[in-house]
Amino acid sequence: MQISQHYQDLFFTILLYMFIICWIIQLFYHWVVFSRLAFYKSRKKKRVFHPVSVIISAKNEYKNLKNNLHLVLEQDYPEFEVVVVNDTSDDDTLELLKYYELKYSHLKIVNITQNLNFFRGKKFPLALGIKSAAHELLLMTDADCRPISNQWIRKMTGNFRNDIDIVLGYGSYERKKGFLNKLVRYDTFHVAMQYLSLSLMGKTYMGVGRNLAYRKSLFYKNKGFSSHYKVQSGDDDLFINRAANSGNTRIEIDKESHTVSAPASALKEFCNQKKRHISTARYYKNKYKMILGIYSLSQFLFWILFIILISFQIYLLYLLLLFAIKLVSQFIINKNCMNRLDEKNLFLESFFLELVLVILNPLLVFSNLANKQEKWK
Q1: Most buried in the list 53, 74, 132, 162, measured by CB within 10 Å?
Q2: Full-prediction pTM beyond 0.90?
Q3: Residue ranges of domains in the chain, CATH in brackets
Q4: Are 284 and 205 in contact (CB under 8 A)?
């Protein structure tokens, strides 16, 4: 019995030490990494207006373009064009674009009539749009996105300097009632907190195609999407993962620079979106896979070990103290980051939403391993 008790005590002691290691890692990420965004102050920008090409890929996007395209076309900016690539749509997308073309002289339509998409997903139409773009500065968004203000182009492209090739923006989702909406918005916020914070540390590993700017010359210098053309997703994050370095990227988080999209209305739709994003992570550079992997694993183990230890009421006082410190730290950092990104009505539920994602994300990873990805549209 004494031997059995000895091994039991040793087992729980090992679990406690593992918990403490995860706790330290989590605090490190919050206070060293995510604090970069939490306490970030935007740089002052010079009033230099370079010509800009906005690129949108559209496949059967009549409804979204009707709701959103005019907000892109009516931006307050001296010189810009909007290039919309109609990717073999069989709805009224082309007719709508031709109608807008009569009204807006700076709208350029690239019409793909045959299914020549040698790439998977949006990469082929985006590449055609980039090739057709008249200007060096490219600003990417999606057909289902709309800029929050008419200053979107001005705010995003105002960050470009001679040494800056990439500007990362924030693409939010509409606030609606219901738990799923909060889960979608918290997940979007949490992903943005990671890539924006790491970018501020000179470790840019991704951007989102809903709101992303880069130079046309950078696209061709990195041979476009050719290094990952077989991957369905990745026109945004995989390209940035390869093209960004420690000094060529800035972030833009001013509220007027944000875009907003309609969120997933069903859990299955949200999970499919998550699976597409997760599927590209294995193609990241090894150093970024390690940085993100350590964070995700420590986050997962923190919760698992806490639940195990608290269930057996082992080291209860120490556990509660460590948990409280982590809770307060996370609340401080999350609250400040949410303020920076203008995300409201998520703060109080953030701990519970994190726990849901900690459970959901591994399930989606395993699901990706077992199933092939769906085609785009």
Answers
A1: 53
A2: yes
A3: 2-39+288-370 (no CATH), 52-272 (3.90.550.10)
A4: yes
